[in-house]
């Protein structure tokens, strides 16, 4: 049985400056698959509708996966053997779906004078309309017997495998020319995705997050340890949800000050089976952290 959650919190810097939250997140669970999606609208002024673009990106990913699962048994049979081709098709469909939403919004809500006033006439004419909505996207999907994910732009996807090991299966690597952001709004966006597929290892949980979460940590190891810790608390998902939003708000206000989104999907049966092991791993983490802290303090005293 699948479970999950999603939260987006506005960054402290955005609250101070009066900007809206440019992140969006969602999750969806049914008997055949679960999906966690996040999107992070770009911050530069030419992306002035990026908060809408991030919502469209999440909606486009959810709708695309639903379409591919319209005949679930057939999809589950074909996907493992043809996952490279099918993943490319999923990426193309997400981009097409997103662009359709952007075009519809432009028709229904033409650009207003207050949106144009920050540009000169020449500057505004040089901005492609899709760029108004520029955003990143990360989606994690767990099906029956396999997991996969897609990503364009920055952000992170973390998988917690059956042995309790947290892994980032997609190294963020912008497949874009120098000085160009990998984005849903690029004309060659479909070629800028990273993806992953795994079939032979069970996954307890997968998390998708915007870069505001990653940059709130001092290093990647701490970031991965954080995901192991919160996975150990998912066996009581309903109670956990009450605390995770507060934690994300704290990480924004006292860390990155950026918007933060975190979406999760988990295998609740596997989670129950591995709960003692996960809690032991977290206890070991805390012991190791305490040892490191003691060594640092001792070193400072000896200086």
How does this structure look, described?
The protein is globular and about 60 Å long. The chain contains 10 helices and 10 strands. Helix 2 crosses helix 4 and helix 8 packs across helix 10. It has one domain: Phosphatase 2c, domain 1. About 2% of the residues have low confidence. The protein has a 5-stranded antiparallel sheet with strand order 1-10-9-6-7. Strands 2-3-4-5-8 form a 5-stranded antiparallel sheet, covered by helices on one side. The N and C termini lie far apart (55 Å). With 303 residues, the protein is α+β, with helices and mostly antiparallel strands. It is 46% helix and 20% strand.
CA-atom Rg in angstroms: 20 Å
Total number of β-strand segments?
Answer: 10
Oligomeric state: single chain
Largest sheet: 5 strands, antiparallel
Give me the number of helical elements.
10
Residue share in helices? 40-55%
Q: Note the beta-strand portion.
A: 15-25%
Summarize the helix and strand pattern as letters: EHEEHHHHHEEEEEEHHHEH
Alpha carbon gap, first and last residue: 55 Å
Supply the number of structural domains: 1
Helix/strand/pairing category = alpha+beta
CATH class designation: Alpha Beta
Mean pLDDT: 91
CATH third-level topology? Phosphatase 2c, domain 1
- State the strand order across the main sheet: 1-10-9-6-7
Concise account of the structure shown:
The protein has ten helices and ten strands.
Structural descriptors:
single chain, alpha+beta, Phosphatase 2c, domain 1, five-stranded antiparallel β-sheet, globular
């Amino acid at each position: 049985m699948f479970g999950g959650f999603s939260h987006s919190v506005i960054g402290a810097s955005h609250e101070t400056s009066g900007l809206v939250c440019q992140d969006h997140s969602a999750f969806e669970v049914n008997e055949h698959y679960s999906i966690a999606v996040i999107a992070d609208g770009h911050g530069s002024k030419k992306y002035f509708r990026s908060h809408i673009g991030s919502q469209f990106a999440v909606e486009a990913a959810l709708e695309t996966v639903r379409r591919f699962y319209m005949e679930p048994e057939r999809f589950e049979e074909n996907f493992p053997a043809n996952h490279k081709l099918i993943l490319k098709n999923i990426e193309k469909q997400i981009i097409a779906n997103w662009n359709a939403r952007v075009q519809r919004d432009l028709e229904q809500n033409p650009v207003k004078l207050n949106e144009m006033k920050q540009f000169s006439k020449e500057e505004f004419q040089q901005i492609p309309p899709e760029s108004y909505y520029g955003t990143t996207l990360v989606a994690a999907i767990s099906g029956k017997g396999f997991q996969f994910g897609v990503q364009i732009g920055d952000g992170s996807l973390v998988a917690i495998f059956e042995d309790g090991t947290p892994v980032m299966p997609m190294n963020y690597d912008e497949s874009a020319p120098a000085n160009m952001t990998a984005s849903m709004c690029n004309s060659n966006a479909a070629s800028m995705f990273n993806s992953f597929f795994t079939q032979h290892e069970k996954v307890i949980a997968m998390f998708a997050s915007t870069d505001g979460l990653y940059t709130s940590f001092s290093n990647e190891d701490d970031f991965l340890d954080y995901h192991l810790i919160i996975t150990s608390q998912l066996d009581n998902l309903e109670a956990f949800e009450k605390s995770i939003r507060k934690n994300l708000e704290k990480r924004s206000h006292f860390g990155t000050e950026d918007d933060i989104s975190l979406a999760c999907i988990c295998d609740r049966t596997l989670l129950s089976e591995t709960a003692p092991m996960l809690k032991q791993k977290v206890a070991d983490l805390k012991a190791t952290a305490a040892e490191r802290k003691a060594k640092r303090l001792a070193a400072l005293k000896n200086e």
